Amino acid sequence: MARIIAGVASSHVPAIGAAIDNKQTEEPYWKRVFSGFETSKEWMRQTKPDVCIVVYNDHASAFSVEIVPTFALGCAAEFPPADEGWGPRPVPVVKGHPELASHIAQSVILDEFDITVVNKMTVDHGLTVPMNLLFGSPAAWPCPVIPLAVNVVLYPPPTGHRCFMLGRAIRKAVESYPDDLRVVIFGTGGMSHQISGPRAGLINSKFDKAFLDNLTKDPQKLARIPHLEYMREAGAEGIEMVMWLIMRGALDDKVDEVYRFYTVPASNTAVGHIILENRAKGAKPAGKRKAAPAKLKRAAARAKVERVHS
Ligand code: DHB
Ligand code: FE
To answer: What is the pLDDT of residue 280?
Structure first.
């Protein structure tokens, strides 16, 4: 059977993509951001997922504001990078996993989550930037990706609770898939930011850090945060954080936090990142990879985070 072995959350600022594409990653402003993902890239190299499910939001790139699905699951064989105004980013085409994606669509719809099935779609910075942060800039992405686009751009977005419950339904779907696939699920966007209006530039590190703490320890509490509280505390675009709750809902109740990074700002946004592993034994089939002992990995991650934590 397939299993979700870990969850990753990461911000998705478009300027991070531009910094990569324009070879500015060594500049001090950007090095501060990218250095926080070195441990994560190593974790990803060791973890070697068979498939990733990337929960993200489209920013009027694939879906114009004429049609905005609340939850849209990418069931296509491939998803080219979107043209966001400067031509498509020079990143690999994302290869999908139509069989698992269709299975998830069937399972969650029969579980009463009426998602939209998407058979043709481009993917914007919401997906490609977290892919770069976790996988670097390879010639081809190392595993298939199932994109799940969530509406957080047009009122009303889904509630945090709905997102959390959809995560649970996705987990059930993955676990009823017959092939032995090790799946990592991403929650992307956030953390606090507002990009227009009188409060443009708003960042609330206290809110963000409490969100990271509770993502690990008490996600049910986060699932009760109403939209207005995100808006007030984390800025208009802070609502992107509900997508992290889909990722968290797909994990065990108790998880190991293996890495965390937080830095302010990147463009207008507080960059937050966390890696959570399920504890279930057998999640990593023997012989599939040479894993560093979990304790060692966590110590290495902590040492690193102390150096880069802002
Ligand atoms: C920024 C952040 C976003 O999440 C986004 O979609 C666009 C811009 C920013 O910080 O500039
Ligand atoms: Fe965004």
So the answer is: 80
